Design the sequence.
């Protein structure tokens, strides 16, 4: 699957794309992630891509022209009425352009699952006061928000979307079983609490030296059901915990 990220700060992604499963998936050619620097398609020497908003207001707004030029540098586009569309796409070649904005549709596991079936996902990252509304109306296929809050730009949301989609693509995590136990029948996400060694942990031993906790502090124990060795009992415990979370 291909990801294209349109941004004015491509260096933000250096560390993220060069670590862990995302790095390995690129090396295996399972994922292709392209950083598209919008500033490279500016019209002036200063590489400016923003301007003051019409009607007044605080901050600067990213212009539509350099964004459209950036898209045109790697996609074949056509104009249908006032809408920009990706041209000459066969049915098997599925591509979507998304724009990150606080007012967009809430990103969730089901959306990640739908996106994972695409061949290519193009993500436009805003900055400053926002992006010229004509990008949302005439270029983007969907506006997406990663939560009911505002961020400084779309770069962090892009990383979140890539990671949530990438782990659904066969070969990225290595073992398909990792997905099955966390994805519901409706393609949503479910996860219960997890424990590891030791079976009994005494926090007082670690903080007593600082004088902040009495040695009488209670031990932290792994639930008995997980230690039983009874697969049905363990499955029941996990199912109950997931229900508790969903309530």
Sequence:
């Amino acid at each position: 699957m291909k990801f294209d990220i349109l941004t004015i700060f491509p260096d933000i992604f250096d560390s993220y794309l060069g670590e862990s499963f995302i790095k390995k998936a690129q090396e295996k050619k399972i994922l292709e992630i392209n950083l598209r620097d919008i500033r490279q398609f500016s019209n002036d020497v200063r590489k400016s891509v923003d301007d003051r908003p019409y009607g007044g207001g605080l901050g600067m707004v990213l212009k539509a022209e350099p964004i459209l030029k950036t898209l045109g540098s790697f996609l074949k586009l056509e104009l249908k009425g006032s809408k920009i569309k990706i041209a000459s796409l066969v049915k098997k070649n599925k591509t979507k352009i998304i724009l990150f904005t606080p007012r967009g549709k809430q990103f969730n596991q089901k959306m990640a699952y739908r996106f994972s079936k695409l061949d290519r996902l193009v993500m436009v990252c805003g900055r400053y006061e926002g992006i010229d509304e004509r990008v949302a109306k005439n270029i983007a296929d969907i506006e997406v928000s990663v939560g009911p809050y505002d961020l400084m730009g779309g770069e962090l949301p892009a990383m979140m979307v890539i990671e949530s989609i990438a782990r659904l693509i066969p070969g990225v995590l290595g073992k398909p079983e990792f997905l099955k136990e966390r994805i519901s029948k409706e393609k949503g996400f479910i996860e219960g609490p997890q424990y590891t060694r030791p079976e009994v942990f005494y926090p007082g031993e670690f903080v007593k030296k600082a004088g902040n906790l009495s040695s009488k502090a209670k031990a932290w124990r792994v639930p008995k059901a997980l230690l039983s060795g009874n697969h049905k009992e363990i499955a029941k415990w996990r199912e109950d915990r997931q229900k508790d979370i969903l309530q």
The two ends are 35 Å apart (CA to CA).
